[in-house]
Amino acid sequence: MTGKAKPKKHTAKELAAKLDAATTNRGGGKAGQADRTGQVKGGHAKLECPHCKITAPDVKTMQIHHDSKHPKIQFDESKLNNLHATIPAAESSMPRPGIRGSLKK
């Protein structure tokens, strides 16, 4: 609690956290959308569920999804859609979304 008529000042930790939040790529926006849909090679959305079209980064995560959302259907790894194989690789000059870092510095 602050004293009488003493405004609370911003700490260095708080300012550093604000700067980090403003300049770090968190996977949102257009770059994050491309990452989530698997349009950019190197994105996190590698596999697509053949039943509900939800994406997952690997087989283990897709199996967890399948066991919880489609328990009556048997899991078959060969039926999964590999989005990285179907979509051609994008330009290498584009920044990859989902990787910690920023262009705003």
Order of helices and strands: HHEEHEH
Given as residue ranges, the uncertain stretches (5+ residues, pLDDT < 50) are none
Mean pLDDT: 77
Major sheet: arrangement of strands: 2-1-3
What is the total tally of β strands? 3
Figure out the total of helices: 4
Strand-residue proportion:
5-15%
Largest sheet: 3 strands, antiparallel
Helix content: 25-40%
Distance between the amino and carboxyl termini: 35 Å
Gross geometry: elongated
Radius of gyration, rounded? 21 Å
- SSE class: mainly alpha
Quick overview of this protein structure:
Helices cover 34% and strands 6% of the residues. The protein has four helices and three strands, in the order H-H-E-E-H-E-H. Strand 1 (47-48) and strand 2 (55-56) form a beta hairpin.
Walkthrough of the structure:
- With 105 residues, the chain is mainly alpha-helical.
- It has a domain at 28-86.
- The protein contains four helices and three strands, in the order H-H-E-E-H-E-H.
- It has helices at 12-23, 29-37, 59-69, 83-86; strands spanning 47-48, 55-56, 81-82.
- The chain has a three-stranded antiparallel beta sheet.
- A hairpin with a 6-residue loop joins strand 1 and strand 2 (55-56).
- The model has no long low-confidence stretch (mean pLDDT 77).
List the defining traits of the structure above:
34% helix, nucleus, 3 strands, cytoplasm, 105 residues, MBS1/2-like, three-stranded antiparallel beta sheet
SSE inventory with pairings:
Elements: H1 12-23, H2 29-37, E1 47-48, E2 55-56, H3 59-69, E3 81-82, H4 83-86
Antiparallel strand pairs: 1-2, 1-3
